[in-house]
Amino acid sequence: MNYVLIIGAKSDIAKATAREYAKNGYDLYLAARNSSELEAFANDITVRIQRTVKLVELDILDYKSHQTLYDNLEEKPLGVISAIGYLGEQEKAQSDFTEAQQIMATNYTGVVSLFNIIANDFEDRRSGFMVGISSVAGDRGRKNNYIYGSAKAALTAYLSGLRNRLYDAQVHVMTVKPGFVATKMTEGMDLPEKLTAQPEEVAEDIYKAQQKNKNVLYTKWMWRWVMMMIKMIPEWKFKGMSL
């Protein structure tokens, strides 16, 4: 069997990505908190696509449990995809550090904890792929989501370093930077249609880019150029803008 481990598996992007990999012949470990809620989804993949799907209980903030979780996998995965994400509330996080801490720990620290464990195994095996879903929000801090953005920026830097470290071990690391995506997390937001992807589009982009060993994926593709322009704005000008 050829398993892919998807963490944060209850998100819309994670589910779409799980279906994409299953359609292309991979078996799945779906890891999430209260993973039993994924039983109907897992059964649907098993029946419709005829791939093996196993559910794994994961609390991304319970760092001490991560090594045991990975050790207990019956068969080690060929690859791992992190779809962990928590947008949180920027205004609340500015005055309530508990909220800020949850945003940072969920989007960065927890992923690093588990990815470090998996990276060590892949490095020893000299094979595997690791995909981390970051965000264009990490490319430049903006006042409406800079705590979330800072956590994603940290994740982007981590993945870059991990990619550098694991290159000689033939382990590929890919950073995914979605822009706007129509998911439960963005429900209620007024998103521009032309810049907004559906989860299925993101999943297809992830699969194709990973198979081609791409290093960094912007999805939709135009976000690479949008963010390039935003990063070129000088700080003296940018600080007074609302983007």
Structure write-up:
The protein has helices at 12-23, 39-49, 66-71, 90-95, 97-125, 146-166, 199-211, 223-232, 235-238, and strands spanning 3-7, 27-32, 53-57, 79-82, 129-133, 172-178, 180-181, 196-197, 216-219. The chain is globular. The chain contains nine helices and nine strands. The longest helix has 29 residues, at 97-125. With 243 residues, the chain is α/β, with parallel strands linked by helices.
Would you summarize the structure shown here?
The protein has 243 residues and is α/β, with parallel strands linked by helices.
Features:
single chain; 243 residues; alpha/beta; 7-stranded parallel β-sheet; two-stranded parallel sheet; 9 strands; 16% strand; globular
Given helix and strand content, the structural type is: alpha/beta
- Describe the largest sheet: 7 strands, parallel
Estimated radius of gyration: 18 Å
- The helix tally amounts to 9
Count of individual beta strands: 9
Strand content: 15-25%
Strand order of the largest sheet: 3-2-1-4-5-6-9
Overall 3D shape: globular
Q: Element order, helices and strands?
A: EHEHEHEHHEHEEEHEHH
Q: Give the helix level as a range of percent.
A: 40-55%
Low-confidence residue ranges: none
Summarize model confidence as the mean pLDDT: 96
